[in-house]
Fold:
Amino acid sequence: MSTVDKVRAISEPIADELGYELVEVEYVKEGRNWFLRLYIDKEDGVDLDDCALFSERLEEVLDAIQPDPIPHAYYLEVSSPGAERPLVTEKDFEKAVGSFIHVRLQGAIEGESIYEGTLKELTEDELVLDIKIKTRRKDIRIKRDMIAKARLAVEF
Structure:
């Protein structure tokens, strides 16, 4: 089990207990330092106090586990997913229908591997984006298994 999977399994019950949604867990090395980043949200958004409360509770639980699930030093960061929240779960995608999103593909469709547009439809196998090409609009169908990453996007 990866570190991210371990931390997710430990963090989800804490998030549920405190009334938060655990959006994403990242464990990355930047330079010489490791960072454990957790993104939480709730219906009316999270603030600094929410992040601090979740961080303190998670630290207590992580410190009590033996053997240590994270074998070396790291920085713990807890924050809001922000306006460009990642779309990870089925629930995330369902809530994003009608919203402007950014999709990065594992391959290319019509020569492009990145699309931004309004998520019009969502099925088990694909999604339909309404994209703008210069001055015209077009629907593009994307197979779900081609999606590498997706997130909400800010439309300019």
Remarks:
- The chain has two domains: 3-79, 90-152.
- The beta strands are 21-30, 33-41, 75-79, 100-109, 112-122, 126-133, 136-143, 147-152.
- Residues 3-79 form a domain with the GMP Synthetase; Chain A, domain 3 fold (CATH 3.30.300.70).
